[in-house]
């Protein structure tokens, strides 16, 4: 299953801002995709544990971690027709932050899979993050208790897999690792 599309029309960030605040949407190349109203318990637990580790590491450092809902406008300097809300993101260039979110590619994005978003996160978002220059993209699968870490090298992602007993290094944050045993413990 994939997130529902709003209509077959093309939209911009200005259109996106006019939609009701109680609805959650992502805009990818002008196509609006409905987001699930609320994540599952497992999704929230995994998200909280990863965010806690990243945020703790970043205390007193120039980078900052954020969690959804937080708008990321990937092509704001062009068509301004792609707005995503990653589960977690890290931004090291504060000039990319404004009162509405992140303008341009974050340094790191984390997406946590669910049955309704898996194809969207693995294919569509994988490609837009790669093309936008997101340096590190984590895809977390709570069902298999694995993390696919995608590191941008020469414009393409290089993939490394980690399991629930691993400590996964965060390549864009020198010295940072995420304890996956803690992330996946029940």
3D structure, described in words:
By secondary structure, the chain is of the alpha+beta class. It has one domain: tt1808, chain A (Alpha-Beta Complex). 24% of the residues lie in helices and 32% in strands. It has four helices and 14 strands. The strands form four sheets. A six-stranded mixed sheet has the order 3-6-9-10-11-12, sandwiched between helices. The protein has a four-stranded mixed sheet with strand order 5-4-8-7, with no helix packed on it. Strands 1-2 form a two-stranded antiparallel sheet. It starts with 12 loop residues before the first helix and ends with a helix.
**CATH superfamily name?**
tt1808, chain A
What best-fitting shape do the alpha-carbon axes yield?
globular
Give a short account of the largest sheet: 6 strands, mixed
User: Could you tell me the number of beta strands?
Assistant: 14
CATH class: Alpha Beta
Instruction: Based on the coordinates given, report the CATH architecture.
Output: Alpha-Beta Complex
The H/E string reads HEEHEEEEEEEHEEEEEH
Which residues sit in consecutive blocks of at least 5 with pLDDT less than 50?
A: none
Helix count, DSSP H or I runs of 4 or more residues: 4
The helicity comes to 10-25%
Radius of gyration: 16 Å
- Percent of residues in beta strands: 25-35%
On the 0 to 100 scale, the average pLDDT is: 92
How far is the first residue's CA from the last residue's CA?
26 Å
Question: What is the total number of structural domains?
Answer: 1
């Amino acid at each position: 299953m994939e997130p529902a599309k709003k209509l077959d029309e093309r939209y911009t960030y200005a259109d996106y801002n006019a939609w009701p605040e109680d609805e959650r949407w992502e805009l990818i190349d002008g196509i609006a995709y409905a987001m699930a109203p609320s994540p599952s318990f497992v999704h929230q637990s995994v998200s909280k544990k990863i965010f806690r580790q990243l945020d703790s590491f970043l205390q007193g450092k120039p980078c900052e971690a954020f969690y959804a809902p937080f708008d990321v406008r990937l092509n704001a300097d062009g068509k301004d027709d792609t707005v995503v809300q990653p589960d977690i993101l890290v931004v090291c260039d504060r000039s990319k932050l404004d009162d509405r979110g992140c303008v341009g590619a974050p340094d790191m994005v984390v997406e946590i899979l669910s049955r309704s978003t898996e194809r969207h996160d693995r294919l569509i978002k994988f490609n837009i993050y790669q093309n936008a220059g997101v340096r590190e993209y984590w895809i977390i699968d709570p069902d298999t208790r694995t993390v696919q870490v995608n590191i941008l090298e020469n414009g393409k992602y290089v993939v490394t897999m980690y399991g629930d007993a691993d400590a996964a290094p965060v390549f864009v944050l020198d010295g940072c690792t995420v304890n996956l045993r803690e992330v996946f413990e029940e």
